[in-house]
Design goal:
The structure holds 2 protein chains of 2 kinds. Chain A is mainly alpha-helical. Chain A contains 17 helices and no strands. The chains are: A mainly alpha, B alpha+beta. At the A-B interface, helix 4, helix 8, helix 10, helix 11 and helix 12 of A face helix 2, helix 3, strand 7, strand 8 and strand 9 of B.
């Protein structure tokens, strides 16, 4: 199809430059780039935290964290052991918060979503460009607050909040964490939540109202669909999180007792509210990754995605069912038998639409003409490792089995397979797929493949043995463990070596690409790349589609 | 890569998996009950009826399913990469629908899940419905130790605290991070009901050999049960993050014969009623 390049019609002012361009940006591509930078920074910090954790867990006994507490907080010899134990719990907490709110969501939704949803629907920008800017800077505020919380008092005599990213009271209340650290975390969550709600409103409005003529909802790229469904989930569940943390804030500071049994409150209220948000949140993370995979598999198989309608309905089903299964995170609080039965059966159902997607991606490749460029090997890797994460999810959906695995390493293995291997592989697939479009330069294929293999080997060595640890009974969020768990902990920690090398390889891929400056051209991927971004220059003009484009015929 | 090489790779991968599964069977037969097996890759040996049923559900129902599905998907991926790569298949077909296939791959997973649901529901009932107990014990989680109360009506009328033995106090053969000062003794072969709560933050009472895991929540009394089949000591740990010493509050339950149990009850009443062995005053969080 014809390349359709809108001329940059900045008649009244030039393209902004420098600090002003990024501080005050109302351009979806620039804001997308800002989000990706934020996500990369959040991800690197969170990765370093996990490096510290796995270093500690490599051998039985506590070797690393008292020393870290001494360096970071100046803990003296007497208190270093205690401070170290608290610091470890703080590391696991911040690791979770950063990865979810400051790596996965910013990159997938704020980054790729902002960059490519307007382009893919043929729009010049998002519906509310200034709101887009607000969303980004709210997230930066949230990050600042979250980082700040690590350096003020939490538990008595300790720094930072150390109760896990799920921050259950009473540990997150005044009883467990009297210091202001938790209040900073709550404010960070308020800001991040607001950022996402506004961003979701922007996405929904853009997708519903600004599609080019001829692009019906059932003709949109699946990546756009994935962001639409994700946006609805965000709008539905983030207000519930907001209510949940606000009540914790008032319990802590204004004398209420929503979560205090002594005042007539209920600790389970917190858990229900948190997980009503928390379970859809994991679909919020993975659905955009599903969208990326659909685009990549289709492009490099040179075939339209198999069963487009089924894929759309599957995403809708995942979102709807995923909203009514939250208490599978609460199987051990002694819910009634009836309640547990319901949540088991409902949770199992989610496996069906997910399976439909996996089979549809394979069917897309079937009969195709597959080229194994870097984005594609990430996507194929995703299908395999996400399936592994998915099946352990089926195990955990059974309350009878979860009884044995709850808050143990089997759960840790499960969610890292779906996230560190699933969502992150989706992020890398999107990153390599769209890097040429965003920067205008090609990456080096061999380096990109090296990044993939180091990562694939690394994450599997880190996380597969954790299934064994969970089966054997090792609890999670433990700084140390009984000696019987030593072998697989050591193996898991050794996996951090290839994983760290993978991160370095990734950094080198970017540096090398920007230094060598090999031009990507409009479409480096060939006939399989049928969505609208491949009709634009690389990088695209500052404004595109000032007149709507002709909609590509995909099916 | 040539077709032959790829097929070879697939075959090798398949054999690796089968070999691992076969080798791991030996790990399923655990030698020591009540404590984790060093380097173990499977569930611990179980000592209660609920534990046996949980182990059977995982090993015989869940594990086969979750092993076959990823292998199947991997197999499909290998085939597709081998058969439909650019060199083998330069022209992509354009079909993107097959109604029959879509129905099949919706129905079959549904059938698998329905099949799984029956043993799942049965296991759930076994775990949740508490049979008539002969002994009831109240367990309270604290930062960072467990407290056990044995009711007067059952020959008790005392309470004691159970703390991890520090490394310096360990005797030869005792397990680091699991050995405790006061073990909780129960009669073997009888239904023991535990009522679980907390005095401060949320903890969780978990004993892997019993397939027991229950949150200890302040303001809430949870209950579960176990019936230990063999005499011995069974270790557990705290399974909910509760502060800096979350990893340092293990559980130890010793099952003895009925006569032995009665004897221990009498001794414990003396020992703990006098205040000795009740442990230092609990260190509660600052604001209480």
């Amino acid at each position: 199809m014809d390349t359709l390049i809108a001329t940059d019609a900045h008649g009244h002012h030039g393209t902004p430059t420098g600090l002003k361009r990024f501080l005050f940006s109302t351009n979806h591509k620039d804001i997308g780039t800002l989000y990706i930078w934020l996500g990369a920074i959040g991800g690197v910090i969170a990765f370093l935290l996990s490096l510290g954790m796995r270093l500690e867990l490599a051998y039985p006994g506590v070797q690393v964290f008292p020393f870290l507490a001494h360096i970071l907080h100046g803990a003296d010899a007497d208190s270093a052991f205690d401070a170290g134990k608290n610091l470890y719990n703080m590391f696991i907490t911040v690791h979770g918060v950063l990865m979810i709110f400051f790596m996965a969501m910013p990159i997938l939704i704020g980054g790729f979503g902002n960059w490519f949803v307007p382009i893919m629907v043929g729009a010049p920008d998002m519906a509310f460009p200034r709101l887009n800017n607000v969303s980004f800077w709210l997230l930066v505020t949230a990050l600042v607050l979250a980082v700040f919380s690590m350096f003020v008092e939490g538990a008595p005599g300790m720094k930072g909040f150390a109760g896990g990213w799920t921050f259950y009271p009473p540990l997150s209340g005044n009883a467990g964490t009297p210091g202001p650290s938790m209040d900073f975390v709550i404010l960070a969550l308020h800001a991040a939540g607001a950022s996402s709600i506004l961003g979701a409103i922007n996405l929904i409005t853009t997708i519903f109202n600004m599609r080019a003529p001829g692009m019906g909802l059932m003709k949109m790229p699946l990546f756009v669909w994935s962001l639409l469904v994700t946006a609805f989930l965000l709008v539905l569940v983030l207000p519930v999180l907001a209510g949940c943390v606000t009540m914790l804030l008032t319990d802590r500071n204004f004398g209420t007792s929503f979560y205090d049994p002594a005042g007539g409150g209920d600790l389970l209220l917190f858990q229900h509210l948190l997980w009503f948000f928390g379970h859809p949140e994991v679909y919020i993370i993975i659905l955009p990754a599903f969208g990326v995979i659909s685009q990549v598999i289709s492009t490099f198989s040179k075939k339209p995605v198999f069963g487009y309608h089924g894929m759309v309905y599957a995403m809708l089903a995942i979102a709807v069912i995923g909203s009514v299964v939250w208490a599978h995170h609460m199987y051990t609080v002694n819910l009634s038998l009836t309640a547990q039965r319901y949540f088991v059966l409902a949770t199992m159902v989610v496996g069906v639409p997910t399976g439909i997607k996996v089979f549809s991606w394979i069917a897309t490749m079937w009969g195709g003409s597959i080229s194994f460029r870097t984005p594609m090997i990430w996507a194929i890797g995703f299908i395999f490792v996400f399936t592994m994460g998915g099946v352990t999810g089926i195990v955990l959906s059974n309350a009878g089995a979860d009884r044995q695995f709850h808050e143990g390493y089997y759960v840790v293995a499960h969610f890292h397979y779906t996230l560190s291997l699933g969502a992150v592989f989706g992020i890398f697939a999107g990153f390599y797929y769209w890097w040429p479009k965003m920067t205008g330069y090609l990456y080096n294929e061999r380096l990109g493949n090296l990044n993939f293999w180091l990562m694939f080997i690394g994450v599997n060595i880190v996380f597969f043995p954790q299934h064994f640890l969970g089966l054997a009974g090792q609890p999670r969020r433990y700084i140390d463990y009984p000696d019987a768990y030593a072998l697989w902990n050591l193996v898991s920690s050794i996996g951090m070596i290839p994983l760290t090398l993978a991160m370095l390889a990734w950094a080198y891929v970017m540096i090398e690409s920007l230094a060598k400056k090999r031009p990507a051209g409009d479409n480096p991927w060939g006939e399989g790349a049928t969505t609208l971004e491949w009709t634009l220059t690389s990088p695209p003009p500052f404004h595109q589609f000032l007149t709507p484009p002709a909609v590509p015929v995909i099916e | 890569m040539s077709k032959k090489t790829l097929a070879c790779l697939y075959g090798k991968a398949f054999c690796c998996v089968i070999a691992t599964l076969a080798a791991s069977q030996s790990a399923f037969a655990q030698d020591e009950t009540g404590r984790p097996t060093p380097g173990g890759i499977g569930l611990p040996a179980m000592a209660t009826p609920a534990g046996h049923e949980t182990q059977a559900f995982y090993n015989d129902v869940l594990l086969p399913i979750i092993t076959i599905i990823p292998i199947f998907v991997l197999g499909l991926l290998f085939y597709v990469m081998w058969r439909f790569n650019e060199k083998s298949n330069p022209v992509a077909s354009k079909y993107s629908h097959n109604h029959k296939l879509e129905v099949i791959w919706t129905i079959i997973p549904c059938l698998i899940l329905i099949g799984m649901a029956f043993p799942s529901m049965h296991l759930l009932t076994t775990q949740v419905v508490v049979p008539e107990p002969s002994v009831t014990i109240k367990v309270t989680g604290n930062q960072w130790y467990w407290k056990y109360e044995y009711p007067k009506e059952q020959g008790g009328g005392f309470a004691f605290e159970q703390r991890m033995k520090p490394d310096s106090d360990l005797q030869p053969g005792e397990l680091r991070m699991l050995a405790v000062d006061n073990e909780a003794v129960v009669p073997v072969g009888e239904v023991v009901k535990v009522q679980i709560t907390s005095s401060d933050v949320i903890h969780a009472f978990g004993v892997p050999s019993f397939a027991v895991r229950m949150d200890a929540i302040p303001g809430r009394l949870n209950e579960t049960w176990f019936k230990i089949e063999k005499e011995g000591v069974y270790y557990g740990e705290c399974y909910f993050i509760c502060g800096k010493d979350h990893a340092y509050m293990p559980i130890a339950i010793r099952a003895v014969s009925r006569p032995e149990y009665e004897k221990w009850l009498a001794e414990a009443k003396e020992k703990f009623a006098s205040g000795e062995g009740a442990g230092p005053t609990a260190r509660v969080a600052a604001n209480q």
